[in-house]
Design brief:
The chain is mostly helical. The chain has helices at residues 9-14, 18-37, 56-71, 95-109, 125-129, 131-135, 140-145, 147-155, 163-166, 168-177, 191-208, 253-261, 279-292, 296-303, 307-334, 337-365; strands at residues 43-48, 75-80, 116-120, 183-186, 222-225. The chain has two domains: 9-228 and 336-365, Rossmann fold; 241-334, Tyrosyl-Transfer RNA Synthetase (Orthogonal Bundle). Helix 11 links the parallel strand 4 and strand 5. Helix 4 crosses helix 15. The chain starts with 8 loop residues before the first helix and ends in a 5-residue tail after the last helix.
């Protein structure tokens, strides 16, 4: 065992090198094949911060994939990261309404609480207690160089960095390791965050050893790389609640139509699918494709010289038709907050059972069982 771990800076940088990406892609493909044969060896962990309502970018970027993973039989843990709301904010805002709204979105799209554990950060003390030993395994310099911290800090502008923001990657490591997840769905830009988790798991094993000599306490979680298409906002830039360029999952059909009508296109009336040169138009074509299952080039060819008006009409029809049953189910769920709270409490209870067992192992490894 070693008390002075190797600096993680190079490890995090290496996680996004071309060679590393190729290995990760190959491993991700291998895992997909294994899941198709036998999903029982995997436990997935993922989640969201309840800072606002979920939108179409969330749905096509990650939510639909979570349902796919659940339906494939993989044990799934989904975190509503309410504590992480205050990493870059002075308060929690309407947190209760947002948590319940997020939960309603999850259930409406097909996540099943009998197969997927949905829980809140603040309701799982053991998860958060893991921060203390985990923070002892990283240095201040490593955290400040962490790409996740840099990106989050940049997003806050000139706001001073809080201690919670500085330790954000370690909190994320606790999110994954408390339930011993061995699979995390991520995009390529999130690989350094997952590598930080792997570093924490390795260092804990090196410093404190194992309760069972045959296995480390924490697994080395693998990335399941997302194959989802990136949906831009209605102005052709990154979809963001703060920009007001999103269509929320729970929006009604009329509001959706009004927003799409204001969507940015370009001066060329003839519709083509050319993401590099016509990002705004191509993004709208992509939305139709995602909602209908048809190829973007085929869709653009059918619209042809129908112009932006014809494109927007088709987008509106496609989005509203696709999300109509999800929105109807969501409305039923929101009208029954007692049911939503019951689902969350049951998820919290299960997460606490898992977290307490993990914390017991951690304390035993640290010789802190009294």
């Amino acid at each position: 065992m070693t008390d002075q771990p190797v600096d993680a800076g190079d490890q995090l940088a290496a996680s996004t090198s071309e060679a590393s990406l190729r290995r990760t892609e190959a491993r991700s493909a291998e895992i997909e094949a294994q899941i198709a044969k036998d999903p029982s060896g995997f436990r997935v962990m993922t989640g969201d911060r309840p800072t606002g309502n979920l939108h179409l970018g969330h749905y096509f970027g990650s939510l639909a994939n979570r349902v796919r993973i659940q339906d494939a039989g993989v044990e799934t843990f989904i975190l509503i990261a309410d504590y992480q709301v205050i990493t870059d904010r002075d308060g929690t805002g309407p947190i209760r309404e947002r948590v319940l709204g997020m939960l309603a979105d999850y259930l409406a799209i097909g996540l099943d609480p009998s197969r997927t554990t949905i829980y809140a950060h603040s309701a799982v003390p053991a998860l958060n207690q893991l921060l203390l030993p985990f923070l002892s395994l990283v240095t201040d310099a490593e955290l400040r160089r962490n790409p996740t911290v840099k990106a989050e800090l940049e997003a806050t502008g000139d706001r001073p960095m809080s201690g919670l923001l500085l330790t954000y990657p370690v909190h994320q490591a606790a999110d994954i390791l408390f339930c011993k997840a061995n699979l995390v769905p991520v995009g390529k830009d999130q690989l350094p965050h997952l590598e930080q988790t792997r570093v924490v798991a390795r260092r804990f094993d090196e410093r404190y050893g194992r309760v069972d000599p045959a296995r480390p306490i924490f697994p080395q979680a693998d990335a399941l790389l997302s194959k989802a298409s990136t949906v831009l906002g209605l102005d052709g830039t990154k979809m963001s609640k703060t920009k007001g360029n999103v269509i929320e999952i729970g929006m009604d059909a009329d509001t959706t139509a009004k927003l799409i009508k204001r969507a940015v296109t370009d001066s060329d009336r003839f519709i083509t699918y050319d993401p590099a040169n016509r990002p705004e138009v191509s993004n709208l074509v992509l939305l139709v494709s995602l909602c209908t299952g048809r190829e973007p080039i085929e869709i653009a060819g059918e619209i042809g010289d129908g112009g932006g008006g014809g494109l927007k009409k088709l987008v509106t029809e496609s989005v509203n038709e696709f999300f109509a049953p999800i929105r109807a189910r969501r409305a039923e769920l929101v009208a029954d907050p007692g049911y939503l709270l019951d689902v969350l409490r049951r998820g919290n209870a299960h997460a606490n059972e898992i977290g307490n067992a993990t914390l017991d192992e951690v304390r035993a490894a640290m010789n802190m069982t009294y």
